[in-house]
Amino acid sequence: MASHYQATLGYVLLIMGEKEKAGTHLTEALKEAHLHQNILAILLCQLALAYSKYLENNIKTAYQLTVEAITYANESGIKIRHYPLPIFLELLYEFDRLHYDPVPQFEFKSEMHKLLNGPNIHLKGVALRFQGKAMVAKGEDDDQVYATLMMSKDYLTRSGDTLELARTRLEMVKVMIRRQDFDSAKKLSLKAWKGLSGFGSFFSRTHYYF
Asked: I need a labelling partner for 75 at 20 to 30 A (CA). Which of 119, 177, 184, 209 fits?
């Protein structure tokens, strides 16, 4: 169990922007997990390390690590019924956006359909944000994009996840800026950054820019 807790700590440090500390904990946890054949801890470590590469904009390595993690879990007889880490959908979205082959058993569009029609309000809220981002990429109407993001905001407010709520609010700010509604954008961006306080350099200009 020690490797599982250390893997979780490494993930938390990662999203707080403490990449060096996170890497140390995740590497140590991965070694111990392999030593004791703790498949779940191995999965968590590998996905967290994949996300670390994603944050560095090293998408190719992030994809390889993610596929290795899921393949290893499948070959070990682990049936993944729930997302191993909250950022898993974000990785799937990015791989799909860049036209990588689907991660085994986790084709992005199928996952989106499942989450958008499922009972989990937290993941539904996250999925709606990615749906909104996909709509923007396709050039769809900003009113429809904003309505989708509003639904994301409502679900994430109900779920109590202030981090994911802040990230949805930042996407809403982008719509406001495109509409040239700068006063509303300023007010909402302040709410978003308040929700992101304490997460260090996790949200760099690589991921959020206006």
From this structure: 119
Which residues constitute the domain of residue 61? 1-86
- Mind listing the pLDDT tens digit of every residue in the chain (210 residues)? 577 778 788 888 888 778 888 888 888 888 888 888 888 888 889 999 999 999 889 999 999 999 999 998 888 888 787 776 778 999 999 999 999 999 999 999 999 999 999 999 999 999 999 999 999 999 999 999 999 999 999 999 999 988 899 999 999 999 999 999 999 999 999 998 887 775 554 444 334 433
User: Does residue 126 share a domain with residue 176?
Assistant: yes
Alpha-carbon distance of 148 to 135, in angstroms, equals: 9
Distance in angstroms (rounded) separating the CA atoms of residues 5 and 38 = 12
d(C-alpha 50, C-alpha 30), whole Å: 13
Q: Are residues 185 and 138 in the same domain?
A: yes
Residues 132, 152 contacting (CB under 8 angstroms):
yes
Is residue 124 included in any domain, yes or no?
yes
Residue 24, φ and ψ in degrees, nearest 5: -65, -50
Q: What is the DSSP string of 29-75?
A: HHHHHHHTT-HHHHHHHHHHHHHHHHHTT-HHHHHHHHHHHHHHHHH
Query: How far is 92 from 67, CA to CA, in rounded Å?
Result: 10
